[in-house]
Design brief:
It is an enzyme of class 2 (transferase). One of its GO terms (cellular component) is cytosol. The protein is an alpha/beta fold. The chain contains seven helices and nine strands, in the order βαβββαββαβαβααβα. It has a single domain, classed as 3-Layer(aba) Sandwich (Rossmann fold), CATH 3.40.50.300. Strands 2-7-1-8-9 form a five-stranded parallel sheet, sandwiched between helices. Strands 4-3-6-5 form a four-stranded mixed sheet. The longest helix is centred in the last third of the chain and has 15 residues.
């Protein structure tokens, strides 16, 4: 008997919408869902752990991964750093029939739409643009110039909402996570 191939779910949305927060909640409450760990050329933020939050790689290592086809998708984000999804772990999880989630940016989601059109695409939206600005400023992880760059990117990303199969509004992390998991066809967590 063979294991049925699972369907990949792609979660994307504008910067500061809370993709990482929803993913962390999902990881804590739904351990059966495998969450891809992206590779990035950016430096770790305080508290980030290599291999858990991201695979932090040099620009040269990232170039090698691109050249060898080791990435399912990749993009330059905010005009600065590159992020990408290692291909092999995703393919292995799906072949094993395990639920898999990619938390990626809009550029990456568009690439996956081309390479894996059978995937399910979920847009994580803020309750409002004002709330998105509040969250970005409240993080305190970016300087004024970086915040301005990310807000300009967010406006472009918000316009892409119609490209997605589903929209989940992140007005409450637990509720948004539960809605995402329901879209994935998984049972609700027992709290």
């Amino acid at each position: 008997m063979t294991t049925p191939r699972a369907r990949l779910t792609v979660l994307a949305g504008p910067t500061a919408v809370g993709k990482g927060t929803v993913s962390a909640d999902l990881r804590a409450r739904y351990p059966q869902v495998w969450l891809s760990v992206s590779a990035t050329t950016r430096s770790p933020r305080p508290g980030e752990v290599d291999g858990l939050h991201y695979h932090f790689v040099t620009p040269e290592e990232f170039d090698r991964m691109v050249a060898e086809g080791d990435l399912l998708e990749w993009a330059v984000v905010h005009g600065r750093n590159r992020y990408g999804t290692p291909r092999r772990p995703v393919e292995e999880r799906l072949a094993a029939g395990e639920p898999a989630l990619l938390e990626i940016d809009l550029q990456g989601a568009r690439q996956v739409r081309t390479t894996m059109p059978e995937a399910q695409f979920v847009f994580l939206a803020p309750p409002s643009m004002d709330e998105l600005v509040r969250r970005l400023v409240g993080r305190g992880t970016e300087d004024e110039e970086e915040r301005a760059r990310r807000l300009a990117t967010a406006e472009v990303e918000m316009a892409a909402e119609p490209e997605f199969d589903h929209v989940v509004v992140n007005d409450d992390v637990r509720r948004a996570t539960d809605e995402l998991v329901a879209l994935m066809g998984l049972p609700a967590a027992v709290d």
